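Researcher: Sequence of 2-methylcitrate dehydratase follows. Predict its structure.
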Amino acid sequence: MITHRVRAHASREDLPREAQLAWKLAETAADPVPVERDVAEMIGNRVIDNAAVAAASLARGPVAAARAQAQAHPYAPGAAVFGLPAAFRSSPEWAAWANGVAVRELDFHDTFLAADYSHPGDNIPPVLAVAQHRGLDGRALVRGIAAAYEVQVDLVRGICLHEHRIDHIAHLGPSAAAGIGALLDLPVDVVYQAIGQALHTTTATRQSRKGAISSWKAFAPAFAGKAAVEAVDRAMRGEGAPSPIYEGEDGVIARLLSGPGAVYEVPLPSRGEAKRAVLDTYTKEHSAEYQSQALIDLARRMAPRVDLARVREVVIHTSHHTHYVIGTGAEDPQKTDPDASRETLDHSIMYIFAVALEDRAWHHERSYTPERAHRASTVDLWRKVRTVEDPEWTARYHDPDPAKRAFGGRVDIVLDDGTAVTDELAVADAHPAGARPFGREQYVAKFRTLAEGVIAEAEQDRFLDLASRIGALDANGVRALNLAAPAGALTAPTAKGLF
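Model: Prediction complete. Tokens:
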């Protein structure tokens, strides 16, 4: 890996494009290094994972709305839309949109945490949609997805957006554009322009994940994917982007991040070095924000040792990010409100820990129902939970050694007589370093569980067969990478829009 030092430059410095971060990202994407076998296998796992959570969300309102918008934009050859029959094809940017919402709606797919946050699986819908539209094979698809993961993970390693309250889709727009560029084998200069356009159009505030969180939390990454498809289309037609987009005097670093004096260090593979970043990412066993995964497992482990009727207080000692994003450090009253949206509840570790402690389990639907959130015992316990930032856990969260990085915390459950039940967990059980790491078997089991009752078994079998050999698929196999719901199973949304 080569570490690139990135800073703002005054316009008079005339920074050449070959020295700009967007160009370096484009070079990484365009480098034709072969995808290694274990990387291709993991990409197949993540395609299965995305399809699993998309299947479970097909009937939900935001997903139905996005699907209806895609249906209003049929196109040939086009791309498939989750839930719809194989014969229907949408314009690729709208397929990326609809499928991106389906993948993101339940907050249940993969994650990478470092200087910033990310869900790298959000790259798959736009890259896949363009692959289907252009009739490309599995080898090209895997190359594109590997490049998208590499760019996003490396940006997340080097540039913190959250401290400036910029939403993490500002790393997703460029990575999806880079992945599409790699998929299409575009020249570096075209990918460079697409990355700049995608970044410029996807910088937004984190209010989408603050306060009363709405369905836009699921739409935001899909918007970035759609914007990336459109950016690549414009760049291929010769249209340019703001330059330098990161380093300019009024660019992202100077005006949105740490300012003209800041220096960021972004690691990228050297020329000819394999793109292996997907192997550093991890998926979720539970449908909730990633920083709650280990704490859900910890709650289940602690529950048999606790008389819940005697709990006086629950204190979660954890990292800065966990405390301020999903904990009491966020100072969001909505995070303790039984009438809060599902999107808000899955970003409330106070709610999540209380329910997991009571139920000794977690479910993507049952754990979030209004009845569950209003249960009197839950509300009472929920409001006894608070988080505390612990410098030790913050340091472990940012440990430069991925094998030592920790996203959990220590929990003290204080009883009415002052005694405490204490335990800690560094990583979720499903994490690569956890008690039960996910492999192909676990990805398939997650898929089967979430698709049950939604997707016919024969359709599940067909999809799994294709995804399990993704790198060897021909163009027809790539076009068939979709899940169709049984006829009549999906109802159209009642509200109408413009289309």
